[in-house]
Design goal:
Chain lengths: 91, 359
């Protein structure tokens, strides 16, 4: 089943463990929703008020950066690894 | 007298305490994270980490000293017919906290221009929707450093919980008399220098850097505007420009005296292109006669090659009007215990200061 991994930077603020999501998680949105079901506080760190990816959060599915940052429709394969990183920015 | 000051900076929250030897940094919180707003209300300290990657956050420290993350102020779902809305329906930054109106009630002024209300000392928040959904809100425009407008100031009338006034940078002064159900732009008499000539007196494109009311005389409101200093004696309906401001009328911060309606403090800077202290001399200006004249206060402040700018929430006065503190973009903090006549520098080089609050 797909697994979602989070940057360890998040651990400064709240628990952000890797989570195996159900095989039914066929899009990025569904996979993240499955994670947030068990870790609701994580949602606001990854998504904005309208449910889009935060501007400075980078997400990779099976090694490729996701394309649909607004509606999170990028497909997720049954054994894909999903990585949530912070984009390089700041000072 | 208040013996604790919180300083919100680009790299953390610093807690200053007064001891026999003077003021010193007693504690640090969120070291490394930008803090955009701080206030102590009802024994609770609220701090707003503005995380670059993970968005704005809200934490609260209880009276026992434990920090916990609170629910964020969140915008409702953006309607499909709002495609022409120039502003995002997502929280950009918490800019200030203001208590008032009821036990446990706090208002948060934010970017992109949402006013939020909490009735439980910051645990949960709701958007004051009528202001956000007012059609003229779309005429607000962005402030320096961002494309989003921001509610720079929230004033709650101590006589009437339903009377709330907000200053918008840039969007004028707005007021409600019914607790937030209906809103109107109210400022008359303000003029700016950055709009075409025939629009300089329009109420909405007025850049309200900060408002401050005199709690003992709530009809007296001061405004540090982008173009000048203004004063109102009728709760913000009508404004008079204070031409006597010295050494300049430009700046960001203003604080009204808690009891004397004739007294207020400002931290002036050379406008507009430079935004540094005039001639490299850091000063505070104070009027004690309602703005007819201004004292330029420099005792204890750097008077040579000082390029410290003081943001709008980075000047604070305590409940006595005797203690003041301010912090600068260069990380300096200065404290006065004689109403601004003389100042002592905090022995520290802090990160750039966003906000200062007595607690």
């Amino acid at each position: 089943m797909p697994t979602v991994h989070f940057t360890s930077q998040l651990e400064r603020f709240l628990p952000a463990p890797s989570v195996d999501v159900g095989a039914g998680s066929e899009t990025l949105g569904a996979a993240l929703a499955a994670v947030f079901d068990g870790h609701p506080a994580l949602r606001g760190y990854i998504l904005d008020d309208q449910g889009a990816l935060r501007r400075h959060v980078a997400v990779f599915v099976a090694g490729g950066q996701v394309k649909d940052r607004e509606h999170l429709t990028d497909p997720v394969g049954p054994d894909d690894e999903i990585h949530v990183f912070q984009a390089l920015s700041g000072g | 007298m208040t013996d604790t000051i919180h300083v919100a900076t680009r790299k953390g929250l610093f807690e200053l305490k007064r001891t026999d030897g003077g003021w010193d940094v007693a504690d640090m919180h969120f070291l490394g994270d930008p803090i955009s707003a701080v206030a102590t209300i009802g024994g609770m300290t609220l701090a707003a980490p503005d995380l670059g990657h993970f968005g704005p956050k809200l934490w609260r420290r209880d009276e026992a000293g434990s920090w916990a993350e609170m629910a964020m102020p969140t915008f409702p779902e953006k309607p499909e017919n709002a495609e022409d809305d120039p502003h995002p329906w997502t929280l950009g930054r918490i800019w200030n906290f203001t208590p008032g109106g009821a036990e446990g009630r706090i208002y948060a002024g934010t970017m992109p221009g949402g006013l939020f209300r909490s009735n439980d000392l910051g645990e949960t928040w709701s958007l004051v929707e009528p202001l956000w959904r007012h059609p003229d809100r779309k005429k607000w425009f962005g402030v320096a450093g961002g494309e989003m407008p921001g509610i720079s100031s929230v004033l709650v009338d101590p006589r009437d919980a339903g009377h709330i006034t907000v200053g918008v940078s840039t969007g004028g002064v707005w007021s409600t008399r019914d607790g937030g159900e209906t809103w109107a732009v109210i400022n008359k008499g303000m003029v700016n220098e950055y709009m075409p000539p025939d629009q300089q007196g329009d109420p909405i494109p007025q850049d309200i850097h900060q408002l401050s009311l005199c709690p003992a005389h709530p009809d007296v409101v001061w405004c540090q505007h982008h173009s000048a200093i203004f004063r109102s004696t009728d709760g913000g309906e009508n404004w008079v420009m204070l031409d006597a401001a010295q050494p300049t009328g430009f700046g960001f911060a203003v604080q009204a005296h808690p009891t004397d309606p004739e007294t207020a403090w400002f931290v002036p800077a050379e406008k507009d292109e430079r935004r540094v202290p005039k001639d490299g001399k850091l000063v505070v200006s104070r009027t004690r006669d309602g703005g007819r004249s201004f004292d330029v206060l420099s005792s204890g402040l750097p008077q040579k090659h000082a390029y410290d700018l003081v943001y709008r929430h980075a000047l604070a006065v305590d409940e006595t009007g005797e203690r003041l503190a301010f912090g600068s973009t260069s990380g300096g903090v200065w404290i006065s215990e004689d109403a601004g006549d003389s100042w002592s520098a905090l022995d520290a080089r802090l990160p750039p200061v966003a906000a200062v609050a007595f607690s």
